[in-house]
Design brief:
The chain has a seven-stranded mixed sheet with strand order 4-1-5-6-7-8-9, sandwiched between helices. The chain has a six-stranded parallel sheet with strand order 10-13-14-15-16-17, with helices on one face. The chain folds into two domains: 161 residues, Cobalamin-binding domain (Rossmann fold); 275 residues, pyruvate-formate lyase- activating enzyme (Alpha-Beta Horseshoe). It has 504 residues and is an alpha/beta fold. Helix 6 runs parallel beside helix 7 and helix 7 runs parallel beside helix 8. The chain has 14 helices and 21 strands.
Length: 504
């Protein structure tokens, strides 16, 4: 057994399987590294293992996860997103069977909204942590190590006397500048293809399909521009990082903050540094675009979601398509790459609404923006799922999954997905628990999803043949890296039926 107090395993990742093998693009994972830093400051020893770096050709086998997690600490922490929640639950069972004396803690955004159901059905999971763990995780390890009552630890679900106990949500951390830097010493930077940074936590917008904002209670907190530039400088000097992705979806939250960040970045003297960021069209004007472009931003990403004002209003996006068109048309003048994300498959999206979206996607493509359509994902913490979960009949249609929910078990080919027999057990497991793994299920597949999917293919999206795809049209999940001049380098794969935002 390792001498560490906790083995912390990162399962936040997206692996895509093709006929000829796996596509991997490991990104530096920040949530577990922030947690590791907080635990070590409190005096605990952390054994961090990033499953993105599992070298097995079959990373989703029981043998692979057991080998990767061999000789774990007394506490095993598993962090995952919703796409790998089923695999993580099964991995936890295998770990519990081999190491019955270990305490298994499940965390990350994957369990959000279904924590009680997970504990009710899967006895091998001992604890589930939720909320910001920077302050509560050290208290949890201290309580377990000293055999104290867990009721005083915030952000925790556990079993007690035959019942499930949920302790109060930990208080939000408002001073993000005061956080420790992620435990970068736990990773080997050259092994990663993407370098993420977090500049804020939370988003105040009410988009009804969003699964991120509810996790933070729709209350945003921000790092100062000086703090962001300081960390970039450290990573640039210590590890040679020259291209950063600001992973949070609320980077452009105010003109003043963005302009000040860009000013400080230009002043820093880091000449070759490039960066990418998400933005909202209603919060970017020409001054913001010019400031970002002049300070090394080579890619800006917009969640447009629909070409129909009726759908935008119904989903609480907070802008209209005329605003989106104006801002994207301006953005392509400033940046080598402009990504526009669209969501399709809303139950209230008529074919007229959908055709407006198709028209908007084609229009943006013609002016040079990249188009990334994504099938609507019904995650349990979203307002949309809560509204429709009793109104619609959901079914598992494994031939066409939401982009965010690819597990790495299915093979992407011909614009569709195919599940090999050796991986069928995972989807059988998912099908047994539709109210736990909600993101894999869709309503009205025959009447709503398939007709729209076929329309997308007819208009050049979700290509059925790899050879027909141009890099500018690709719906690939991976974000092609840039060379020193800001030109696009080839993506890891020219084709993918997915268009998901990068994993957290």
């Amino acid at each position: 057994m390792t001498t560490a107090d906790i083995t912390l395993v990162n399962l936040n990742m997206l692996i895509i399987r093709y006929k000829d093998g796996l596509e991997r693009e490991p990104h530096v994972t920040l949530g577990p590294l922030y947690l590791a830093a907080a635990l070590e400051k409190a005096g605990f020893s952390v054994d961090f293992r990033d499953y993105q770096l599992c070298a097995s050709d079959e990373p989703f086998s029981v043998e692979s996860i057991l080998e990767f997690c061999a000789d774990p600490a007394p506490i095993i922490g598993l962090s995952c997103m919703a796409n790998l929640l089923p695999f993580t639950v099964l991995a936890a069972r295998a770990l519990k069977e081999k190491y019955p004396d270990r305490t298994i803690v499940l965390g990350g955004v994957g369990p959000c909204g279904v924590e009680e159901k997970l504990l009710e059905r899967f006895p091998w999971i001992d604890l589930i942590a939720y909320g910001e763990g920077d302050l509560s995780a050290p208290r949890l390890l201290g309580a377990i190590k000293n055999k104290k009552d867990l009721s005083g630890v915030p952000g925790l679900l556990f079993r007690k006397d035959g019942a499930i106990v949920r302790t109060p949500l930990p208080p939000r951390i408002s001073d993000l500048d005061g956080l420790l830097s992620p435990a970068y010493d736990k990773i080997e930077y050259p092994k990663y293809a993407g370098y993420n940074m977090v500049t804020s936590r939370g988003c105040p917008y009410l988009c009804s399909f969003c699964s991120v904002a509810p996790v933070w209670g729709r209350a945003p907190h921000f790092r100062s521009p000086a703090s962001i530039v300081s960390e970039m400088s450290h990573l640039h000097d210590a590890y040679g990082v020259e291209l950063f992705l600001f992973q949070d979806e609320f980077f452009v939250n105010s003109k003043e903050r963005v302009v000040e960040f860009c000013r400080l970045l230009r002043k820093s003297g880091m000449k070759k540094v490039m960066w990418k960021a998400f933005a909202r069209v209603n919060l970017t004007d020409d001054d913001v675009l010019r400031a970002m472009s002049s300070s090394g931003c080579v890619e800006i990403r917009y969640g447009i979601e629909s070409g129909s004002d009726a759908v935008l209003k119904r989903t609480n996006k907070g802008f209209d398509i005329a605003t989106a068109t104006r801002v994207v048309a301006e953005a392509v003048k400033h940046f080598p790459r402009v990504d526009t994300f669209f969501i399709w498959g809303f139950p209230f999206e008529t074919m007229d609404d959908f055709h407006k979206t198709i028209f908007q996607m084609i229009s943006f493509r013609l002016i040079g923006a990249r188009i990334l359509p994504s099938l609507l994902c019904w995650l349990p913490q979203t307002d949309l799922y809560r509204e429709y979960r009793e109104k619609l009949r959901f079914e598992l249609y494994a031939d066409l999954l939401p982009e965010y929910m690819l597990t790495g078990h299915e093979v992407c080919e011909g614009g569709r997905l195919r599940v090999a027999d050796r991986h069928r057990h995972l989807f059988d497991f998912i099908g047994e628990h539709p109210d736990v793994f909600t993101g894999f299920f869709q309503p009205d597949v025959e009447t709503n999803i398939l007709p729209k999917f076929e329309t997308l293919q007819r208009h050049g999206f979700y290509y059925s043949e790899v050879s027909h795809v141009k890099e500018t049209d690709s719906c690939g999940a991976c974000s092609p890296r840039m060379d020193d001049a800001g030109r696009r380098k080839p993506a890891l794969a020219q084709f993918s039926p997915i268009g998901a935002r990068n994993p957290e």
